[in-house]
Amino acid sequence: MTTTVDWRALREEFPTLRETAYLNTCSLGLLSNPSRQAVNRYLDLWTSYGAAAWYDHWMAQLTTLRQQFSRLVGCEETEVAIVPNISSGLAAISSSLDFSKRNRVVTTELDFPTVAHHFLAQEDKGVETIIVPSKDRINVDSRALEEAINDKTALVATSRVFFTSGQIQDVAYLADLCHRNGALLLVDDYQGTGQLPIDVKATKVDVLLSGGLKWLLGGPGIAYMYVREELIQSLTPTITGWFAHRDQFDFNLSYMAFKEDARRFEAGTPSVAAVYAGEAGLSLVNQVGPEAIRQRTSELTVDLVSRLGEAGFELQIPATPESHASITLLKSSEPHAVVKELSKRSIIVDARSGGVRISPYFYNSTEDNQRLVEALREIAKGSQI
Ligand SMILES: Cc1ncc(COP(=O)(O)O)c(C=O)c1O
Q1: Is the Cβ atom of 181 under 6 angstroms away from ligand 1?
Q2: Is the overall model pTM greater than 0.90, yes or no?
């Protein structure tokens, strides 16, 4: 399939790219002109209306934001909660679970650490956290996962895209595996949503968390949580607050009644600047479309891998282009030094243990890849880095 997106014009919306080869979206997506304008709009509303901005504008913007996310992942607006970060969404769900009968949570060695940290902190309460190891630091063997999930498993919490290797996991298969064992599947999709299409209904995941920081171009302080409709009312969080209350503006302290939709997993006042930046980012991603984005980032990843290979660098990447999202790990014994050298040349990537992470997005070009690989050749001067 070919697309007619004007990638050059889109690139113009990201002023950082005028000078810089920015290849680090898996760490932080770039600020776009629309997100800057949206935050300015928020500031103008604050100036003009004061507290009335809440009722006349900001509450409506929260609804628009939920709608944008629901459109992107293929669910109803009522299945979306806005939370400040992945950890808070995870906490709202985990606080809803009864670990007395099923006390096991399964995650993997390749998942972002906040997931394991959250459950390890509940060891004293009897929660058993199983961290399935990875043999190659790229992927986790599905048989090892199958063996870890049993009738004591309450939850499997893992990523669709592993944050250091770019490996894509088959979450539909995982959802089925979990459900056959009576467990729930929570997907940390911070590295997936936006750069890869997803249909949460088709995949049958129970909970999916993502946020503004990376591929959704909204910056820090905003995350989105899908919770499957049939599940919502069976979950009652104890990490909660007045935004979850059905009668939020009654200010009645004598009872707690939860909202009936996914807003029951929200807790307190959101960061409205982040709501505006996040909505503009999501709107841009929806406009371009995740299918076109995936096509573009696949092409850039294939180009990057081939240039790095030709230059003789060693990579730690998934086995096939189909299972490789737009995160490429270049093996390096001194990744921080390499990242520093590249940044002196206005080429931005980041370091993780054992490697340099390179993550082109739709606003990048093959020229950015070329600039990176030429600089790496110069830094390495004929040897490995
Ligand atoms: C896969 C993944 N999950 C979670 C996070 C961050 O979690 P939180 O929003 O709680 O800071 C990151 C990166 O910052 C990530 O890459």
Answers
A1: no
A2: yes
